[in-house]
Amino acid sequence: MRIINDITDCKTCIYRKMLFPDLSDQEYDIINSARKEYIFKRGEIIRKEGETIKSFLYLRKGLVKLFKTDKSGKDQILSINKPTDFINLLSIFSNSTYKYSISALEETYVCDVDLPAMLDVIRMNSDFGMRVLNRISKISDEIIENRFEINQKQVKGRVAHILLFLSDNIYKKSSFRMPITRREVGELISMTTENTIRTFSEFKKDGLIAIEGKVITIEDFERLRNVNKTG
């Protein structure tokens, strides 16, 4: 992790549009004075389960995973978050400590805003507070719907679901570098690493995808979407 200073003022930041479009000058000044910028390398822990929640975390660039670790040390990935997400909203109001860990899947840029400053702006601006609550609801709905959909599928359908999620929602192209290992894919879809690796190999053999190192190219979207629906 290292500190950077890319943004001089929140009012001119291109990343503010999702949640900060209509704050007053005073409210922007409060946020700006309480803000730090960090870069995390791939694999770095951004926040660890059990740590005290002290700030809002806004993902400007990169990719992160939210995960929990069980008593045996096995991880369960809860979600993958992309830029413009507030990556710790799920716990910000309901808990004093994190109930999950957050780590970077690639080089990741995060804006860190002190929690008291954000709460002050929420008290001052009810419209802003409603946008925060709306975003919390959307994040919760996305996690619930995604977990439910994955759990209804067999292993081939689960792997197809993740590949289409990365292609359609994260990278928005047919060819991309896998941000997670086969083991992590297994954690995300609640399948063993062995079953996950075997399914990737079968998809490659059947011509659904091409694999070159860590780069995946979806060769047949129609068939892969059919596996996602019926698998």
Which properties best describe this structure?
alpha+beta; 2 domains; 23% strand; elongated; 4-stranded antiparallel beta sheet; single chain; Arc Repressor Mutant, subunit A; Jelly Rolls; 231 residues
CATH topology name of the largest domain, in short, is: Jelly Rolls
- Sum up the overall morphology in one term: elongated
How would you write the strand order of the largest sheet?
A: 1-2-8-4
Residue share in helix: 40-55%
User: Which architecture name of the largest domain does CATH use?
Assistant: Sandwich
Q: Which regions contain 5 or more consecutive residues with pLDDT less than 50? A: none
Report how far the terminal alpha carbons are from each other.
Answer: 40 Å
CATH class of the largest domain: Mainly Beta
Structural class of the secondary elements? Answer: alpha+beta
Number of domains: 2
What is the count of β-strands?
Answer: 11
* Helix-strand topology string: EHEEEEEHEEHHHEHHEEH
Tally the helices: what do you get? 8
Sheet-strand content, in percent, reads: 15-25%
- Radius of gyration over C-alpha positions, nearest whole angstrom: 19 Å
Q: CATH H level of the largest domain: which superfamily?
A: Jelly Rolls
What's the mean pLDDT score? Answer: 88
Main sheet record: 4 strands, antiparallel
Task: Walk me through the structure.
This protein is α+β, with helices and mostly antiparallel strands and about 230 residues long. It folds into two domains: about 1-150, Jelly Rolls (Sandwich); about 155-230, Orthogonal Bundle (Arc Repressor Mutant, subunit A), CATH 1.10.10. About 40% of the residues lie in helices and about 25% in strands. It contains eight helices and eleven strands. Helix 3 (about 115-125) packs across helix 4, helix 5 crosses helix 8 and helix 6 packs across helix 7 (about 195-205). The mean pLDDT is about 90.
